[in-house]
Structures are given as C-alpha cells and as structure tokens.
Amino acid sequence: MTKVYLNTSVLIAAAWTQDPRHKEALELLRKCKERGMRMITGNMTLFELEGKRSERLVKNIMRRYGITVVKVNLKESSIRARRIIKRLGLSPRREPDVIHVLTAIKAGVSYLVTYDRKLRSLSRKLGLKGCYPRELLEELKK
C-alpha cells in the first residue's frame, strides 16, 4: 500500500474553502482515497494547529478522509531535528519541517506532500519524494 504524508499546509488548504488551493487539495485527498492510498500526517501537524481557527476544520477533514496521525516523541524529534539543521546549515525556524520529514521517514511513506517549497526541497535532501499536490495528482493520472 502506498503511504502519503500530508503536511499541515495541504490539510489547511483542504479544510478552508476560502483557500485558493482548496479545490486542488480536496481533489488530491479524493484521488488518494479512491486509489486506496494510506494518508497520514504527524502529531507535529496537530501541535502546529493547536488553538488555531483551522484546528477543528482540519480534524473534520482528517476524519472524513481517514487520515491517520503518526505519533513521534516531539522532544526527541526536536533534538534530532536540531542536529540535522546544524549539519545542513538551515535556519532554526525550519525545525518543524525537519520533524515532519523525520516523522514521514519513520512512517515509511512514498511521498511527502506539501505546498511549502522549502519543505519539499528539504524532504528531497533527506531522501524522500517531496512533491506539491499538483505533482502527485499528475503522477496519479499516469
């Protein structure tokens, strides 16, 4: 079974009808579900959304499409992320992104899908197939 890690940006776009990428994000979720792909996100996503207006909407989308949460120890992941940040010379502000990538690697995903250009690039540097939703949609058409 193909596993797809959905970054926070994709889930917010799918949840917010006002987001200009809303239709594309929903199409991706529908296609992945139709193909029997396992869609996951990490507990870092829930941490990033906590207390924000989009939290309830994203959780509803996750329930509707069967998106599961892979839990990692955020404290341990943060320590690992800081080492990677130092090694790659990244900004400390990229720590949540590194944690997303580490979670996706742990989950054994085939794709990490995001609207974040820097996260897409980082995921590729760390050995994942990072892509934008439109890129995965194109691949699913083949």
Q: Alpha-carbon distance between the termini?
A: 17 Å
Query: Strand-and-helix sequence, N→C?
Result: EHHEHHEHHEHEH
Number of DSSP helices? 8
The coarse silhouette is globular
* Fraction of residues in H or I helices: 55-70%
**Helices and strands: which structural class?**
alpha/beta
CATH class: Alpha Beta
The side-by-side strand order for the widest beta sheet comes to 3-2-1-4-5
CATH fold-level name: Rossmann fold
Assign the CATH architecture: 3-Layer(aba) Sandwich
Number of domains: 1
Radius of gyration: 14 Å
CATH superfamily: 5'-nuclease
Secondary structure: number of strands: 5
Provide the residue-averaged pLDDT: 96
Largest sheet: 5 strands, parallel
Please provide a written account of the structure:
The protein has a single domain, classed as Rossmann fold, CATH 3.40.50. The protein contains eight helices and five strands, in the order E-H-H-E-H-H-E-H-H-E-H-E-H. It has helices at residues 8-15, 22-34, 43-49, 54-65, 74-88, 95-107, 117-125, 133-141; strands at residues 3-6, 38-42, 68-70, 111-113, 130-131. Helices cover 61% and strands 12% of the residues. By secondary structure, the chain is of the alpha/beta class. A five-stranded parallel beta sheet has the order 3-2-1-4-5. The protein is globular.
